[in-house]
Amino acid sequence: MLVQTRTITVQKGYADKVIERFSERGPIDGMPGLLDVSVMINKRSKEQEEVVAMIRWESEEAWKNWEKSPDHMQGHRNKKDQSQPEYVIDTTVNMYEVKTVRKGGQ
Known about the structure:
Number of strands: 4
CATH architecture: 2-Layer Sandwich
Largest sheet: 4 strands, antiparallel
Radius of gyration: 15 Å
Helix content: 25-40%
């Protein structure tokens, strides 16, 4: 399993805009190998707000297929000349290979 996280730090009061964007359905939802997308907000943020989108894939190959897909590439072309919203302070993207998953309640 491969997990991609996008951590977006925004000015106080703007987290809902980011949450809305990542909560909408889009072309990624129909991709084979996509397990789920979770959108979370850091409850300990004080000065700023931090939103994390966690995208889980069956495999690295499934993620690579999304990255090479016409829908994904077109999305980047459409945003090429757009600047990031003023309220976004920072964005960090990480990729994790899942080594162990333990189920609770057993």
